[in-house]
Write a structure and sequence with these properties.
By secondary structure, the protein is an alpha+beta fold. The chain has 6 helices and 4 strands. It starts with a helix and ends in a 5-residue tail after the last strand.
Length: 180
């Protein structure tokens, strides 16, 4: 008799202790980022940065957009800045990367990455920094707009921009106020 694979996995996961379940979730994050980083590296090697970034924005951007809507629905979030930040806290982080999201006003927030695991891995294997600014803007714009279409990025910095060693990228975004 055929089984529902997802239902079977849910039943198996329900049997795990909480700490082991959290470890399993982290493994899935790592698996996703391994896929993302490998397809980016292969596209970059074969077709160059522009094609790799175009595919990243198309694929990862769409995944982030859909993921944001799913998390918004799952957590019963609204469309304000705090809801966007909460959604981002539940998004799939790249293991080994560090940074923070900060609300800096009623309708404004700031994001920064102080350690980028993907860029460090590239440098460690002798590759150049990936000029990821356009992909960052594209992916994050789609993510923010999935929660609130009035969101807009007001400032962004990422490679190829010059940056200190402890700041890989940052951006600010806001929700435009209604002027009615």
């Amino acid at each position: 008799m055929a089984m529902d694979f997802v239902q079977n996995l849910r039943e198996k996961l329900a049997e795990l202790p909480k700490e082991q379940l959290l470890d399993f979730i982290e493994i899935q994050f790592k698996n996703l980022w391994t896929l993302q980083n490998n397809y980016m590296a292969r596209l970059d090697d074969k077709f160059g940065h522009e094609v790799a970034l175009d595919f990243d924005n198309a694929c990862f951007g769409r995944m982030s957009e859909v993921g944001a809507r799913r998390i918004q629905k799952f957590l019963g979030l609204g469309d304000d800045i705090q809801s966007i930040l909460t959604c981002l806290e539940y998004s799939v982080p790249e293991p080994g990367s560090e940074g923070e999201w900060t609300q800096v006003g009623e309708n404004k927030a700031h994001f920064k990455v102080t350690k980028c695991n993907m860029q460090h891995a590239r440098l460690n294997r002798g590759a150049e920094e990936l000029p990821c600014k356009d992909a960052l803007i594209g992916v994050m714009d789609r993510t923010f707009k999935a929660i609130n279409p009035k969101s807009r990025i007001t400032r962004a910095m990422a490679p190829p921009d010059k940056h200190p060693d402890d700041l890989w990228c940052e951006l600010e975004f806001e929700i435009e106020e209604d002027n009615n």
